[in-house]
Amino acid sequence: MDRLREMQVFVAVAEAEGFAAGARRLGMSPPAVTRAVAALEERLGVRLLQRSTRRVRLTEAGTRYLDDARRLLAEVDAADEAAAGINATPRGDLAVTASALFGQLFVMPGIVDYLNRYPETRVDALFVDRVVNLIDEGIDVAVRIGALADSSLRARRVGSVRIVLVAAPDYLARCGTPSQPDGLAGHETIASRAGSGTFGTGDWRFATPAGPHNVRVQPRLMVSTNDGAIRAALAGFGIARLLSYQVAPHLADGSLKIVLPDCELPPLPVHLVHREWRHGSAKVRAFVDLLAARLRADPALG
Protein backbone atom coordinates (compact mmCIF):
# COMPACT_ATOMS: atom_id res chain seq x y z
CA MET A 1 0.00 0.00 0.00
CA ASP A 2 1.42 3.41 -0.95
CA ARG A 3 2.17 6.09 1.61
CA LEU A 4 -0.75 8.34 0.68
CA ARG A 5 -3.20 5.47 1.02
CA GLU A 6 -1.77 4.58 4.43
CA MET A 7 -2.22 8.20 5.42
CA GLN A 8 -5.85 8.17 4.23
CA VAL A 9 -6.54 5.03 6.22
CA PHE A 10 -4.98 6.50 9.36
CA VAL A 11 -7.06 9.69 9.06
CA ALA A 12 -10.27 7.69 8.61
CA VAL A 13 -9.54 5.52 11.66
CA ALA A 14 -8.56 8.52 13.81
CA GLU A 15 -11.66 10.52 12.86
CA ALA A 16 -13.99 7.54 13.32
CA GLU A 17 -12.21 6.53 16.56
CA GLY A 18 -12.21 2.88 15.54
CA PHE A 19 -10.81 0.46 12.98
CA ALA A 20 -14.19 -1.04 12.06
CA ALA A 21 -15.80 2.40 11.66
CA GLY A 22 -12.83 3.61 9.61
CA ALA A 23 -13.07 0.52 7.43
CA ARG A 24 -16.75 1.17 6.76
CA ARG A 25 -16.01 4.75 5.79
CA LEU A 26 -13.36 3.61 3.30
CA GLY A 27 -15.16 0.52 2.02
CA MET A 28 -12.29 -1.71 3.15
CA SER A 29 -12.13 -4.78 5.37
CA PRO A 30 -11.16 -4.20 9.03
CA PRO A 31 -8.08 -6.48 8.75
CA ALA A 32 -6.82 -4.48 5.76
CA VAL A 33 -7.26 -1.23 7.68
CA THR A 34 -5.46 -2.66 10.72
CA ARG A 35 -2.56 -3.79 8.55
CA ALA A 36 -2.30 -0.38 6.86
CA VAL A 37 -2.08 1.50 10.17
CA ALA A 38 0.42 -1.02 11.55
CA ALA A 39 2.57 -0.62 8.42
CA LEU A 40 2.44 3.15 8.74
CA GLU A 41 3.49 3.03 12.41
CA GLU A 42 6.29 0.61 11.60
CA ARG A 43 7.57 2.82 8.80
CA LEU A 44 7.46 5.92 11.01
CA GLY A 45 8.84 4.10 14.03
CA VAL A 46 6.25 5.60 16.37
CA ARG A 47 2.90 4.62 17.87
CA LEU A 48 0.12 6.80 16.47
CA LEU A 49 -2.91 5.17 18.09
CA GLN A 50 -3.68 3.68 21.49
CA ARG A 51 -5.91 0.64 21.03
CA SER A 52 -8.61 -0.52 23.45
CA THR A 53 -11.52 -2.94 23.20
CA ARG A 54 -14.01 -0.12 22.59
CA ARG A 55 -12.19 2.62 20.70
CA VAL A 56 -8.85 3.97 19.63
CA ARG A 57 -7.26 7.20 20.82
CA LEU A 58 -4.52 9.32 19.34
CA THR A 59 -1.13 9.41 20.99
CA GLU A 60 0.67 12.75 21.22
CA ALA A 61 2.60 11.86 18.06
CA GLY A 62 -0.63 10.72 16.43
CA THR A 63 -2.30 14.05 17.13
CA ARG A 64 0.50 15.96 15.43
CA TYR A 65 0.58 13.52 12.52
CA LEU A 66 -3.19 13.76 12.02
CA ASP A 67 -3.00 17.52 11.47
CA ASP A 68 -0.16 17.14 8.98
CA ALA A 69 -1.88 14.23 7.21
CA ARG A 70 -5.12 16.16 6.77
CA ARG A 71 -3.23 19.13 5.36
CA LEU A 72 -1.20 17.03 2.93
CA LEU A 73 -4.21 15.03 1.72
CA ALA A 74 -6.19 18.23 1.18
CA GLU A 75 -3.29 19.70 -0.82
CA VAL A 76 -3.13 16.57 -2.97
CA ASP A 77 -6.86 16.82 -3.70
CA ALA A 78 -6.55 20.52 -4.44
CA ALA A 79 -3.58 19.93 -6.74
CA ASP A 80 -5.60 17.34 -8.68
CA GLU A 81 -8.44 19.82 -9.06
CA ALA A 82 -6.06 22.58 -10.12
CA ALA A 83 -4.53 20.31 -12.76
CA ALA A 84 -8.02 19.59 -14.07
CA GLY A 85 -8.48 23.30 -14.63
CA ILE A 86 -10.03 26.29 -12.91
CA ASN A 87 -13.45 25.30 -14.24
CA ALA A 88 -13.33 21.79 -12.79
CA THR A 89 -16.73 20.64 -11.56
CA PRO A 90 -17.01 20.74 -7.76
CA ARG A 91 -17.30 17.23 -6.35
CA GLY A 92 -16.78 15.38 -3.10
CA ASP A 93 -17.43 16.10 0.57
CA LEU A 94 -17.64 19.61 2.02
CA ALA A 95 -17.84 20.33 5.77
CA VAL A 96 -19.39 23.67 6.79
CA THR A 97 -19.96 25.25 10.20
CA ALA A 98 -21.79 28.29 11.57
CA SER A 99 -23.57 29.29 14.76
CA ALA A 100 -26.90 27.52 15.22
CA LEU A 101 -29.35 30.27 14.33
CA PHE A 102 -27.19 31.89 11.65
CA GLY A 103 -26.72 28.48 10.05
CA GLN A 104 -30.45 27.79 9.96
CA LEU A 105 -31.43 31.22 8.65
CA PHE A 106 -28.63 32.08 6.22
CA VAL A 107 -26.30 29.15 5.53
CA MET A 108 -28.77 26.31 4.99
CA PRO A 109 -30.49 27.99 2.01
CA GLY A 110 -27.04 28.44 0.45
CA ILE A 111 -26.17 24.80 1.08
CA VAL A 112 -29.35 23.62 -0.63
CA ASP A 113 -28.62 25.90 -3.59
CA TYR A 114 -25.06 24.54 -3.76
CA LEU A 115 -26.19 20.89 -3.66
CA ASN A 116 -28.76 21.52 -6.39
CA ARG A 117 -26.17 23.18 -8.62
CA TYR A 118 -23.44 20.57 -8.08
CA PRO A 119 -24.96 17.06 -7.84
CA GLU A 120 -21.57 15.39 -7.28
CA THR A 121 -21.09 17.12 -3.92
CA ARG A 122 -22.13 16.20 -0.37
CA VAL A 123 -22.27 18.60 2.58
CA ASP A 124 -21.87 17.96 6.30
CA ALA A 125 -23.24 21.02 8.16
CA LEU A 126 -22.29 21.63 11.80
CA PHE A 127 -24.43 24.39 13.34
CA VAL A 128 -23.33 24.95 16.94
CA ASP A 129 -22.92 27.95 19.23
CA ARG A 130 -19.19 27.57 19.81
CA VAL A 131 -16.03 28.37 17.88
CA VAL A 132 -15.12 25.30 15.85
CA ASN A 133 -11.45 24.60 15.10
CA LEU A 134 -11.33 24.01 11.36
CA ILE A 135 -8.27 21.77 11.42
CA ASP A 136 -9.16 19.70 14.48
CA GLU A 137 -12.71 19.01 13.29
CA GLY A 138 -12.03 18.70 9.56
CA ILE A 139 -14.07 21.76 8.55
CA ASP A 140 -13.66 23.32 5.10
CA VAL A 141 -15.66 26.55 5.46
CA ALA A 142 -16.85 28.46 8.55
CA VAL A 143 -18.87 31.59 9.20
CA ARG A 144 -17.21 33.79 11.81
CA ILE A 145 -18.97 36.72 13.49
CA GLY A 146 -16.60 39.16 15.15
CA ALA A 147 -12.88 39.89 14.94
CA LEU A 148 -10.74 37.13 13.44
CA ALA A 149 -7.95 35.86 15.65
CA ASP A 150 -6.40 33.16 13.44
CA SER A 151 -4.28 34.67 10.66
CA SER A 152 -3.71 31.24 9.06
CA LEU A 153 -7.28 31.31 7.72
CA ARG A 154 -8.26 32.85 4.42
CA ALA A 155 -11.20 35.20 5.01
CA ARG A 156 -13.79 36.98 2.89
CA ARG A 157 -15.93 39.64 4.53
CA VAL A 158 -19.61 39.27 3.63
CA GLY A 159 -21.40 41.70 5.92
CA SER A 160 -21.81 42.92 9.48
CA VAL A 161 -24.25 42.62 12.38
CA ARG A 162 -25.01 44.74 15.42
CA ILE A 163 -25.46 43.91 19.09
CA VAL A 164 -28.93 45.21 19.93
CA LEU A 165 -31.34 45.42 22.85
CA VAL A 166 -34.91 44.52 21.91
CA ALA A 167 -38.27 44.34 23.63
CA ALA A 168 -41.90 43.89 22.64
CA PRO A 169 -43.97 47.09 22.23
CA ASP A 170 -46.42 45.97 24.94
CA TYR A 171 -43.57 45.52 27.43
CA LEU A 172 -42.24 49.01 26.69
CA ALA A 173 -45.74 50.47 26.98
CA ARG A 174 -46.19 48.76 30.34
CA CYS A 175 -42.73 49.32 31.86
CA GLY A 176 -41.32 52.28 29.96
CA THR A 177 -38.28 52.62 27.71
CA PRO A 178 -34.87 53.23 29.32
CA SER A 179 -33.16 56.36 28.04
CA GLN A 180 -29.65 55.37 29.12
CA PRO A 181 -27.84 52.08 29.86
CA ASP A 182 -27.99 52.51 33.65
CA GLY A 183 -31.78 52.58 33.33
CA LEU A 184 -31.73 48.82 32.67
CA ALA A 185 -31.53 48.31 36.44
CA GLY A 186 -35.26 48.96 36.65
CA HIS A 187 -36.18 46.45 33.92
CA GLU A 188 -36.52 42.73 33.45
CA THR A 189 -33.66 41.42 31.28
CA ILE A 190 -33.31 38.22 29.29
CA ALA A 191 -29.94 36.60 28.58
CA SER A 192 -28.75 33.66 26.49
CA ARG A 193 -25.88 31.29 27.20
CA ALA A 194 -25.51 30.56 23.48
CA GLY A 195 -22.46 31.96 21.72
CA SER A 196 -20.55 34.92 23.09
CA GLY A 197 -20.58 35.87 26.76
CA THR A 198 -21.55 39.33 25.51
CA PHE A 199 -25.18 38.26 25.91
CA GLY A 200 -25.03 36.48 29.28
CA THR A 201 -24.77 37.59 32.87
CA GLY A 202 -22.21 40.10 34.08
CA ASP A 203 -21.35 43.35 32.31
CA TRP A 204 -23.12 44.51 29.17
CA ARG A 205 -20.99 47.05 27.32
CA PHE A 206 -22.38 50.13 25.60
CA ALA A 207 -21.02 53.09 23.64
CA THR A 208 -21.90 56.50 25.08
CA PRO A 209 -20.79 60.07 24.30
CA ALA A 210 -18.50 59.84 27.34
CA GLY A 211 -16.92 56.62 26.06
CA PRO A 212 -17.45 52.89 26.67
CA HIS A 213 -19.79 52.15 29.55
CA ASN A 214 -20.43 48.82 31.29
CA VAL A 215 -23.66 47.94 33.06
CA ARG A 216 -23.88 45.02 35.48
CA VAL A 217 -26.98 42.91 34.75
CA GLN A 218 -28.55 40.01 36.62
CA PRO A 219 -31.20 38.62 34.25
CA ARG A 220 -34.30 37.08 35.77
CA LEU A 221 -34.46 34.77 32.75
CA MET A 222 -31.43 32.88 31.45
CA VAL A 223 -31.91 30.55 28.47
CA SER A 224 -29.63 28.15 26.62
CA THR A 225 -30.58 29.22 23.09
CA ASN A 226 -31.02 32.50 21.28
CA ASP A 227 -34.38 31.23 20.04
CA GLY A 228 -35.50 31.04 23.67
CA ALA A 229 -34.45 34.62 24.37
CA ILE A 230 -36.30 35.82 21.27
CA ARG A 231 -39.48 33.97 22.27
CA ALA A 232 -39.39 35.44 25.76
CA ALA A 233 -38.95 38.95 24.38
CA LEU A 234 -41.81 38.45 21.92
CA ALA A 235 -43.98 37.30 24.82
CA GLY A 236 -43.38 40.66 26.51
CA PHE A 237 -41.32 39.44 29.45
CA GLY A 238 -38.47 41.92 29.21
CA ILE A 239 -35.47 43.29 27.32
CA ALA A 240 -33.13 40.87 25.51
CA ARG A 241 -29.66 41.44 24.09
CA LEU A 242 -29.11 39.70 20.76
CA LEU A 243 -27.51 40.12 17.35
CA SER A 244 -29.43 42.16 14.80
CA TYR A 245 -29.74 39.33 12.26
CA GLN A 246 -31.40 37.11 14.88
CA VAL A 247 -34.32 39.51 15.30
CA ALA A 248 -34.43 41.11 11.83
CA PRO A 249 -37.85 39.63 10.87
CA HIS A 250 -39.38 40.74 14.18
CA LEU A 251 -37.98 44.25 13.83
CA ALA A 252 -39.36 44.41 10.31
CA ASP A 253 -42.90 43.42 11.34
CA GLY A 254 -42.87 45.55 14.50
CA SER A 255 -43.23 42.71 17.00
CA LEU A 256 -39.92 43.82 18.58
CA LYS A 257 -38.46 47.30 19.00
CA ILE A 258 -34.82 48.32 19.47
CA VAL A 259 -33.96 49.83 22.84
CA LEU A 260 -31.07 52.30 23.34
CA PRO A 261 -30.12 52.46 19.63
CA ASP A 262 -27.77 55.40 20.25
CA CYS A 263 -25.69 53.33 22.67
CA GLU A 264 -24.88 50.42 20.37
CA LEU A 265 -21.31 49.19 19.99
CA PRO A 266 -19.65 49.26 16.54
CA PRO A 267 -20.96 46.54 14.18
CA LEU A 268 -19.31 43.12 14.19
CA PRO A 269 -17.89 41.87 10.87
CA VAL A 270 -19.12 38.63 9.33
CA HIS A 271 -16.54 36.57 7.42
CA LEU A 272 -16.43 33.33 5.50
CA VAL A 273 -13.17 31.62 6.40
CA HIS A 274 -11.43 28.53 5.13
CA ARG A 275 -8.02 26.97 5.34
CA GLU A 276 -5.47 28.28 2.87
CA TRP A 277 -3.89 25.79 0.47
CA ARG A 278 -1.40 26.44 -2.29
CA HIS A 279 -4.02 25.39 -4.85
CA GLY A 280 -7.66 26.38 -4.74
CA SER A 281 -10.24 23.65 -4.24
CA ALA A 282 -13.12 23.73 -6.73
CA LYS A 283 -15.66 22.55 -4.17
CA VAL A 284 -14.58 25.14 -1.57
CA ARG A 285 -14.18 27.94 -4.10
CA ALA A 286 -17.63 27.34 -5.59
CA PHE A 287 -19.32 27.20 -2.18
CA VAL A 288 -17.60 30.32 -0.86
CA ASP A 289 -18.43 32.27 -4.04
CA LEU A 290 -22.08 31.18 -3.90
CA LEU A 291 -22.59 31.83 -0.19
CA ALA A 292 -20.71 35.14 -0.24
CA ALA A 293 -22.96 36.45 -3.00
CA ARG A 294 -26.09 35.40 -1.09
CA LEU A 295 -24.96 36.90 2.23
CA ARG A 296 -23.81 40.20 0.72
CA ALA A 297 -27.21 40.61 -0.92
CA ASP A 298 -29.11 40.06 2.35
CA PRO A 299 -30.23 43.36 3.95
CA ALA A 300 -30.10 41.78 7.42
CA LEU A 301 -26.29 41.71 7.11
CA GLY A 302 -25.82 45.17 5.69
Task: Describe the protein in words.
By secondary structure, this protein is α/β, with parallel strands linked by helices. The protein has three domains: 3-84, Arc Repressor Mutant, subunit A (Orthogonal Bundle); 92-160 and 268-301, Periplasmic binding protein-like II (D-Maltodextrin-Binding Protein, domain 2); 163-263, Periplasmic binding protein-like II (D-Maltodextrin-Binding Protein, domain 2), CATH 3.40.190. Helix content is 40%, strand content 25%. The protein is built from nine helices and 14 strands. The protein has helices spanning 3-16, 19-26, 30-44, 60-84, 100-117, 169-175, 226-234, 244-253, 282-296, and strands spanning 49-51, 56-58, 92-98, 121-127, 141-145, 153-161, 163-167, 189-192, 202-208, 211-217, 221-223, 239-243, 257-259, 268-275. The strands form four sheets. It has a five-stranded mixed β-sheet with strand order 4-3-5-14-6, with helices on one face. A five-stranded mixed β-sheet has the order 11-8-12-7-13. β3 (92-98), α5 (100-117) and β4 (121-127) form a beta-alpha-beta unit. The model has no long low-confidence stretch (mean pLDDT 89).
Order of helices and strands: HHHEEHEHEEEEHEEEEHEHEEH
- Envelope shape: elongated
CATH superfamily of the largest domain: Periplasmic binding protein-like II
By secondary-structure content and strand pairing, the structural class works out as: alpha/beta
First and last CA, distance: 52 Å
Helicity, in percent? Answer: 40-55%
Flag low-confidence runs. none
Count of DSSP strands: 14
Number of domains: 3
